[in-house]
Amino acid sequence: MDVTLATILLGILLAVLIVIPRLRSTSDQPKKVTSNAQNKAVKSYSKAEVALHNKRTDCWIIIKDKVFDVTSYVEEHPGGDAILAHAGDDSTEGFYGPQHATRVFEMIDDFCIGNLEI
Ligand code: HEM
């Protein structure tokens, strides 16, 4: 009788300590996968490779340690050809200049194609 009671108690203890936390972490998993899937920037490009894309019809820029293909945005850019000033090169300084409201900093994610190779 005592053994049965002890077995039941042990079973409950195991459920609380192991099974329930495991179920919880399983239900968390889809969230983690979604956020991983949003990390688009997986490719790496050398500075030399970025430098090849230095014109209006093929324009990549570097901002901090990331590479952006802004070709489709050149004609739309409210700042006109200023976006071409450092085409194929580092545009970090221009990008963080006073002409850009902070909302612009969020727009660039759409154009990110990868990381800059160090
Ligand atoms: C993906 C890159 C870029 C995006 C999405 C972007 C977006 C914008 C937007 C939305 C504006 C209008 C002002 C505002 O709403 O705050 C603007 C203005 C401006 N941008 Fe950019 N920009 C980019 C890159 C650059 C770069 C690299 C430069 C280099 C210098 C630059 C120079 C300017 C200038 C000078 C203006 C002011 C235009 C004026 O007030 O007449 N932008 N940009």
UniProtKB/TrEMBL annotation:
Signal peptide: none annotated. GO terms for molecular function: heme binding; metal ion binding. The keyword Metal-binding applies. Gene3D superfamilies: Cytochrome b5-like heme/steroid binding domain. SMART domains: Cyt-b5. Keywords: Heme, Iron, Metal-binding. Residues 42-117 form the Cytochrome b5 heme-binding domain. It holds the Pfam family Cyt-b5. It comes from the Eukaryota. GO terms for cellular component: membrane. Belongs to the cytochrome b5 family. This is Cytochrome b5 heme-binding domain-containing protein.
